[in-house]
Amino acid sequence: MELRDFWGKSSKSWLFLILLFVASFGFYSNVFNWIPRWRQREVSQSCEAHHLQGQRESPPLSEGDCCPDTCRVPRVPRMLYPKAHVLQPTRVDVLLMTPWFAPIIWDGTYDSAILNAQFKNTTIGVVVFAIKKYVVFLKLFLETAEKYFMVGHRVIYYILTDRPADVPQIPLQEGRRVVILQVRNYTRWQDVVLHRMEMISNFSQQRFLHEVDYLVSADIDMKFSDHVGVEILSSLFGTLHPGFYASDRRRFTYERRPLSQAYIPEDEGDFYYAAALYGGSVAEVYRLATACHQATLIDKANGIEAVWHEESHLNKYLLYHKPTKVLSPEYVWDERMLRKPPYLRRLRYVAVPKNHAQIRSR
Ligand code: UD2
Asked: What contacts 122, CB < 8 A, 6 or more positions away?
């Protein structure tokens, strides 16, 4: 056979084979997408990888492939609600946006119906520590959370305690449950609060990353007294401390000793954030908790303890990792210590009075 003949015939065969390969590749890659369970497994695996590696660069193929924390543009059903007016700001008495364009959440600035539709099928994990005598706060915390916190959404209360037998049984709404995680205690209360970051970091890897979409870390000596819903959720959120939201940055009780990892110079600082309520996607909270824990280890090696413990490290972290949402002091308040100003229309999560010396003793 002439070389040209062979090439002429075999080039057609090659072309045919290539076309066949391309067609079957396309068919099989789509076939797996038509099988719901296969897709689900793929999506959850990619979410996990996404969570662990924190890769935001490669966008998912479709909304359904997305992890809810970081990348989706949520789809909402047809709904009827009052239209927002560009020339009529919802609030003119308070700051609604940080200089890095993170919304600050105040009453009157959001529509819960739209947000609830956006965050449908989201699971929220709440991490609370009830170590030693602090178990006494669990009952009121859980009872009020069932009334006001993320109502209508799936919630897992992770209760980290050294006294599992003292965790009260509270009736829960559908889709909500308590998970008790036994942890060790520390003699010094300062060590209890400092080690919260280590425990959040460890349990994020072990459980939270695989079980929930968002994590909310909350103090236990508090109660909910009004709605706290999905309006707080974002990749990373912090809450304005009720004692300092109106203060000049020089008055913030940041750690001011350069030897500490939590050190913030006097000419820096956006806000003073409260450690009593912060959170975000599990991946972001995991990063935050790990970084703060590492910082406390370095401090310990250098013989220094930050002035406000993990709150100092949290503030340092949030200065250089700007939160994507900021909660107004409506979300952490102390009625005994502070007089409510008129622009604070709602008090949602408030301190329960306690005798510090008595409750912190063994
Ligand atoms: C402030 C902060 C708190 C933390 C603490 C550290 C606010 C509103 N609160 O609260 O978040 O930064 O200062 O100095 O800014 N805990 C136990 N057992 C203990 C001690 C503490 O479980 O023996 C847990 C418990 O969940 C408690 C949390 O740690 O809610 C914070 O401790 P705290 O409430 O005694 O600290 P406090 O009120 O000074």
From this structure: 68, 153, 154, 213, 214, 230, 233
Please, what's the b/e burial string for 16-49 (b: 16 or more CB within 10 A of its CB; e: otherwise)? eeeeeeeeeeeeeeeeeeeeeeeeeeebeebbee
Burial class (CB in 10 A: 0-12, 13-18, 19+), 214: buried
What is the pTM assigned to this prediction? Answer: 0.84
Catalytic position from the list 231, 310, 311, 330: 311
Cβ(212)–Cβ(282) below 8 Å: yes
For residues 342 and 172, give the distance between their C-alpha atoms in angstroms, rounded to a whole number.
34
Distance (Å, whole) CA 322 – CA 316: 10
Interval between CA 30 and ligand 1 midpoint (Å): 52
* Cα 187-191-193 angle, rounded to 5 deg: 120
pLDDT tens per residue across span 72-99: 688 999 999 999 999 999 999 999 999 9
In the numeric block, the tokens 């300062």 are attached to 190
Are 258 and 28 a contacting pair, CB within 8 Å? no
Kindly report the length of the chain. 362
Q: How far is the CA of 179 from the centre of ligand 1 (A)?
A: 21
Sign of CA dihedral 163, 169, 173, 175: positive
